[in-house]
Design a protein that fits this description.
Largest sheet: 7 strands, parallel
Shape: globular
Number of strands: 13
CATH class of the largest domain: Alpha Beta
Bound molecules: uridine-5'-diphosphate
Number of helices: 12
Strand order of the largest sheet: 3-2-1-4-5-6-11
Number of domains: 2
Order of helices and strands: EHEEHEHHEHEEHEEEHEEHEHHHH
Length: 327
């Protein structure tokens, strides 16, 4: 089996590559290494079944030959983060929408057997129902959420119209080793771990009672492979942990001082996936507990030693577009 992983040098992609190699696949990474890092592949870089192609999904011509003889395609390449998506919507559209179109067309041309797309739970915006099922209203709050959702629409349309054997997974707050240690102000785990290792207080939005469906990355890699093995086509499924944890609970596990941040517009109090559909259709369920997952992150906290340490002032500056456009 040959599996192609776009964004294979990224946080989630690298865990998926590792799991596929363990399952005996030949793994072809397609990554432009803009946010992906070769370091993420370090644990298995010597595996003879790993190929790395430094190719941009926006470059349709360079992309297509990578799909030769490929069985399964996992499309995880894309741009993340809220603030830069508000500042540079055209860039986000090109990568997350046009780039996805290129992946779909290359897949179609090469008659791949399976495609699984990494979509985002941010498509639900501020949900009306918890846990949130796939049938909830789609209400993206910023260009990142919109462009990831448009990518999903393309995937499902290609499944319906061209009978491409494709489906989509809507990921809820993924955390784990190899998550980003540099770049724009982003996901809470990286922000808090850098603050902790540098002896700075945790910047807590609001009163910390808001909660997230934190899902451990190896569970997510397992979900992608389970989805690829299934016959499900033209459908979108939630991937979540089955629970939701407050920021206060995370702080209890991390331990340390805190300092407040204002509440951010367009941000839900809770994210919590209804995972009944994936349990029923694929028999998949997350296995790693929050306590174990946070424990694994703490073991690797050294990775954040040189990461940017955010504080109230630098966060206020970094998120000014957020408050300006979403208030
Ligand atoms: N959060 C926080 N301090 C920070 C960054 C995030 O308290 O410096 C909180 C935020 O309010 C949210 C949770 O952590 O409830 C997850 O935030 P993240 O940006 O990682 O994900 P998202 O809000 O997109 O789900």
């Amino acid at each position: 089996m040959i599996s192609l992983v776009t964004g294979g040098a990224g946080f989630i992609g690298s865990h998926l590559c590792e799991a596929l190699l363990k399952a005996g696949h030949t793994v072809r990474v397609v990554d432009n290494l803009s946010t992906g890092r070769m370091e993420n592949l370090q644990d298995f870089i010597d595996n003879k079944n790993l190929e790395v192609h430094k190719v941009d999904i926006c470059d349709a011509k360079a992309l297509s030959p990578c799909f030769e003889n490929v069985d399964w395609v996992f499309h995880l390449a894309g741009l993340a983060d809220i603030v830069p998506s508000i500042e540079e919507p055209v860039y986000y559209f090109n990568v997350n929408v046009q780039g996805t179109l290129n992946v779909l067309e290359s897949s179609r041309k090469h008659n791949i057997k399976r495609l699984v797309y990494a979509a985002s739970s941010s498509c639900y915006g501020i949900p009306d129902v918890y846990p949130t099922p796939e049938t909830s209203a789609i209400q993206p709050q910023y260009p990142y959420a919109l462009t990831k959702y448009l990518g999903e629409e393309l995937v499902l349309h290609w499944a319906n119209t061209y009978k491409l054997p494709a489906m989509s997974l809507r990921l809820f707050n993924i955390y784990g080793p190899r998550s980003r240690t540099s770049g724009a102000y982003g996901a809470v785990f990286g922000v808090f771990l850098a603050q902790k290792i540098n002896g700075q207080p945790f910047t807590v939005v609001g009163d910390g009672t808001q909660s997230r469906d934190f899902t451990y990355v190896t569970d997510v890699a397992d979900a992608f492979i389970t989805a690829a093995k299934s016959n499900l086509v033209g459908d979108a499924l939630n991937i979540g942990s089955g629970e939701h944890q407050s920021i206060n609970r995370l702080l209890e596990l991390l331990g340390g001082e805190r300092t407040p941040l204002p509440k951010r517009p367009g941000e839900p109090m809770i994210t919590f996936a209804d995972t009944a559909k994936i349990e029923e259709k694929l028999g998949w369920k997350a296995k790693v507990s929050f306590e174990d997952g946070v424990g694994e992150m703490l073991k690797r906290i050294d990775a954040w030693k040189n990461a940017p340490v955010w504080n109230q002032d630098t966060i206020a500056e970094a998120t000014s577009a957020w408050f300006k456009y979403l208030s």
